[in-house]
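Morning run. Coffee first, then this:
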Amino acid sequence: MDPLAFYFLSFLAVTGGVLLVAFRNPVSSALAMVLSFVGLAGLFVGLNAFFVGVVQILVYAGAIMVLFIFIIMLLDLNNERSIRFRSSTVLAGLVVPLLLIAQVLGVIQGGVEGEEAQFGEITAETMADSAAAFPEDSAIHKSLTHEKAPKLPDTNLIGHTIFTRYNFPLQVMGALLLVATVGVVVLSKRSLAKAPADS
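And here it is:
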């Protein structure tokens, strides 16, 4: 990836994240998140993760953001009153980012001091060796051992990894999204019940 493109896309992602927090209007914050998603999608494409980059645009910048905008409009967050934060809330808001920064620095430090990963060239032989870990009748094995043009089935590999190694976290995430959706419906019904009737 060209360094200029990398810095530009990184700037978009970071700027979108900063504007997300800085804007007071929730709709503007949601649109700033779209900017951050576009920058992340470009970075994924630069890493040759084309499927993840396309999913980042179609799912997150598209469907998920539409859901966010729908929830914001449903809850009418602009009419909320300003509240005073407790000292414990402010303390948590300071401690949690510091812990995150400490974790990021630990990961960067370990990557610099540790041995660098050696990525060999992907050839038909390495693909055939990797195919031994999958059943012969699977789509992944057939793609890796194709006689004429063996290729890396990134979509199939992502699906296989998600539904085998990370199946339980995936189900937990789905349950959390379902609970959040039900919570939004309950909150919207309460707000409608408290609203004064038109005379």
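The radius of gyration is 23 Å. Good start to the day.
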